[in-house]
Amino acid sequence: MIDKRVRNLAEAVAGIPDGAIILCAGFGGAGLPDALCEAIIEQGARDLTVVANNAGTGRTGLAALLATGRVNRIICSFPRSSGSVVFEELYAEGRIELELVPQGIISERMRCAGAGLGGFYSPVSVGTRLAEGKEHREIDGRMYVLEKPLKGDVALLSADRGDRWGNLTYRKSARNFNPTMAMAASLSIAQVRHVVELGEIDPEMVITPGIFVDRLVEVPG
Amino acid sequence: MPLKRRQIAWRAAQDLADRAYVNLGIGLPTLVADFLPADREIVLHSENGVLGVGPAPGDNEIDWDLINAGKQPITLVTGGSYVHHTDSFLMIRGGHLDLALLGAFEVSEKGDLANWTTDDPGFPPGVGGAMDLAVGAKEIRVLVEHTTKAGAPRIRRQCGYPLTAASVVRRIYTDLAVIDVTPQGLLVREMVEDIDFPALQAKTEAALRPAPEMRPLRAPPV
User: Fold this and answer.
1) Are the C-beta atoms of B152 and B183 separated by less than 8 Å?
2) Which of A13, A219, B79, B140 is in Cβ range 3.0-4.6 Å of A191 for a Cys bridge?
3) Domain B5-216 adopts which CATH fold?
């Protein structure tokens, strides 16, 4: 029997090792696995690298995890947004390393990791500082840079509904990075608003099939 | 009178074509959504996976699962759809968007765009989707105030700030003028009525030429 449900947040994040690369889904607060981020504070892993589009807002969720000082490095497209106070403090104090990656490139690099590909050539960032040091190649008259896959040890996801096989659905723009990150990590953990019976989700509506999900925990809200 | 920010957005909206798929960048371009001409069907794309962005919701319709690139609550139009991030950026990079309207720190006379970092060590850089949009959409237009608050020109011979992309901007909407980037340089299509051309040039580092059919830049009080 396949049953990926776990009883609580502590079980959901158990075993995340020090030094892990953590893919954290969400765009702003939409689709952000805030309860899982906070559960890692209790769990205790340190020297973490976080991959996320934004660097958290306020003092909860991802921002709370950053505030512990246990995230050494963040790979991000847009760390600076209204309310990203914790990140801004850490950055100003030199306590967190920032790797800035264009938004669609973060996403496609993770897709590559999930798809078993060795990378791709992209026109994005050619002629800018973010292309420095990357392999350049002209293909059919256009210049591209090589982008390598970005694989996580752990993905933290937030979904609307999930069943015991790990099939997931999302609501509206809260889908964002979740389906791609689910594919791109060795251990994918989802917090879902509603755990439903197997078969309740119309197969045509499954956005993330359970093959990409290892654990799910119900977090109403 | 220089245009107000909402008037710059109104003016840019007047040029949107019927049936166009358009991305609005954060800040000033986001305001364009309020001024879509009623006689045209225009599909707004938001980088976080929304195709068919509708008007801002009423106070009791806010749904924080439905936001735009600036993290503000939005609605979805009838016919709209949701995609995940990788597909959203496939739309952007794959040339499927007709137009992206972007903000800028600076634009050069060659259409170079700088809008992601000022290199201020106390102010972390943020590239977001700007580099993907700048090379991916079929056309790039910029909405920007003509000068900084301190009066420094934002339309320059060369950008002083690090580039987002080179030679991509085709039209610039400012509070003073509508300017096309052409192979022969910057061509002023429209200019507000209460300044003269030398005054506009004085607020612009790059050389400007008036278009033969240059018109007054006017916008209603919006």
Assistant:
1) no
2) A219
3) Glutaconate Coenzyme A-transferase (3.40.1080)
Q: Do B130 and A87 touch (CB under 8 A)?
A: no
Name the residue with tokens 């850089």: B125
Among A43, A65, A41, smallest CA distance to A52 is for A65
Query: What's at A20, amino acid-wise?
Result: A
Contact B126, B105 (CB under 8 A): no
CB of B115 less than 8 A from some CB of A:
no
Q: Kindly list the distances between the CA atom of residue B111 and the CA atoms of B27, B42, B179, in Å, as whole numbers in the listed order.
A: 20, 25, 11
Q: Do A128 and B65 touch (CB under 8 A)?
A: no
Angle between helices B85-93 and A103-115 (to 10 degrees): 120
ipTM value of the model?
A: 0.96
Of B41, B47, B61, B145, the active-site residue reads B47
B92 touches chain A (CB under 8 A): yes
The rounded average pLDDT for each run of 10 residues, N- to C-terminus, in chain B (222 residues) is 96 98 96 95 98 95 96 96 98 98 98 95 91 98 97 98 98 98 98 96 98 97 94
How far is the alpha carbon of A104 from chain B, nearest alpha carbon, in Å? Answer: 5
- From the centroid of its chain, how far is CA B4? 15
> Which residues of chain B make contact with A78, given a CB cutoff of 8 A?
126-128
Q: Say if the Cβ atoms of B124 and A111 lie within 8 Å.
A: no
Determine contact: B49 vs chain A, CB below 8 A.
Answer: yes
Domains of chain A and CATH, by start: 19-100+151-218 (3.40.1080.10)
Q: What is the DSSP letter of A179?
A: H
- A108-162 per-position pLDDT tens digit: 999 999 999 999 999 999 999 999 999 999 999 999 999 999 999 999 999 999 9
Domain residue limits, chain B: 5-216
| Residue in B82, B128, B164 nearest the CB of A128 | B164
Q: Which of the 8 DSSP states describes residue B152?
A: -
Given a contact cutoff of 8 angstroms between Cβ atoms, the answer to whether B192 and B176 are in contact is yes
Q: How many CB atoms lie within 10 A of CB A124?
A: 30
What is the DSSP secondary structure assignment for residue A27, as one 8-state letter?
A: B
- Please give the structure tokens belonging to residue A101: 């990656």
